[in-house]
Amino acid sequence: MARFRTWVGIALAGALSVFLAACSSTGGKRAEDARKAAAAQGRAAVNTPRWTFAMITHSGDGDTFWDIVQSGAKQAAVKDNINFLYSHDDEAQQQAQLVDAAVDKKVDGIIVTLAKPDAMKAAVARAEKAGIPVITVNSGSEESKAFGALTHIGQDETIAGEAVGDELNKRGKKKALCVLHEQGNVGHEQRCDGVAKTFHGTLRKLYVNGTNMPDVQSAIEAKLQADKSIDSVVTLGAPYADTAVKARTDAGSKAEIDTFDLNAKVAASLKDGTLGFAVDQQPYLQGYQAVDLLWLYKYNGDVLGGGKPVLTGPQIITKDQASALAQYTERGTR
């Protein structure tokens, strides 16, 4: 009888072992399925520490371009289990102070724009001295490496300008106006200089106060009225394209309006022929990649670019391409 009970015990133990193993296997599969579902739904797909990354940009208030950048950054932050902090100021000294504030908070990584690099150099150096990895994004590709950043994510502004000059040549344009809406922004200067480098016609720069749209419109309108030979106007940001269109109408000009950057309004204007073409630097990708690359560096010591910028543009978008991208521009990710 005792022997029988022993064999029964062994049999039960074996069955229980098989059952638990099956449960463990099923549980593991369920955990993996849950992880995949979380990633698909935009929830954290990793179990790494809850790091804090700060993005500090030179954006002014109400700039829709930076809404798209933030959208990409926030999506990557959710996936990577990152506490994402965003701040901005279009005054360089204030932007530098925001970087200093992030350093004081002892964040785990900083993403920063270098539109006015000289004013940002000391703040970036302070972050690096504190052991905080820095990635530059959007502007400052030429200064990024010298300042000690891991890498730069964005388009090469000179190359982007050259692409615009080439496109203007294809369209047979002879006289272009390049509208700079933020004085002192090195990226804007590089764009216009790039256009001049490849454009076979004449290029003139027009400096405007980008924070005052009525003034922007008046300045463009005055130029178009004074010089009827201007056959193209190039704006350096999507919000300014629509303003240039209004200025063209009021001036009675036939100049083509082209622009850097893409959003839903620009895409719609490309489709109906109001605008000629746009230069897309993929801001959503800039924000997403910046967060993702910082996470990869913290998690695995990875660095992309090999000492060179990670380029997200330029891509020339015309009427045909705008239609294909409509589903993305309408949801605010292109």
Annotation keywords:
334 residues; alpha/beta; Rossmann fold; 2 domains; 6-stranded mixed sheet; 53% helix; 16% strand
Query: Gyration radius, to the nearest Å?
Result: 26 Å
CATH top-level class of the largest domain: Alpha Beta
- Largest sheet entry: 6 strands, parallel
Query: How many independent structural domains?
Result: 2
**Gross geometry:** globular
| CATH architecture type of the largest domain | 3-Layer(aba) Sandwich
Could you name the CATH homologous superfamily of the largest domain?
Answer: Response regulator
Which percent bin holds the helix content? 40-55%
Q: In total, how many beta strands? A: 12
What is the averaged pLDDT score? 89
Separation of the first and last Cα atoms: 77 Å
SSE-based structural type:
alpha/beta
Q: Which fold name is given in CATH as the topology of the largest domain?
A: Rossmann fold
Describe this structure in words.
By secondary structure, the protein is an alpha/beta fold. It has 2 domains: 52-155 and 283-303, Rossmann fold; 157-280, Rossmann fold (3-Layer(aba) Sandwich). 53% of the residues lie in helices and 16% in strands. It is built from 13 helices and 12 strands. The protein has helices spanning 2-40, 64-79, 92-104, 117-129, 141-144, 157-170, 186-198, 213-226, 238-251, 264-271, 283-300, 319-324, 326-330, and strands at 52-57, 83-88, 109-112, 134-137, 152-154, 175-180, 202-207, 232-235, 256-260, 278-280, 310-311, 315-317. The strands form 2 sheets. Strands 2-1-3-4-5-11 form a 6-stranded parallel β-sheet, sandwiched between helices. It has a 6-stranded mixed β-sheet with strand order 7-6-8-9-10-12, with helices on both faces. Strand 1 (52-57), helix 2 (64-79) and strand 2 (83-88) form a beta-alpha-beta unit. Helix 3 (92-104) packs parallel to helix 4. The longest helix has 39 residues, at 2-40. The protein is globular. The N and C termini lie far apart (77 Å). Residues 1-27 and 34-40 have low confidence and may be disordered.
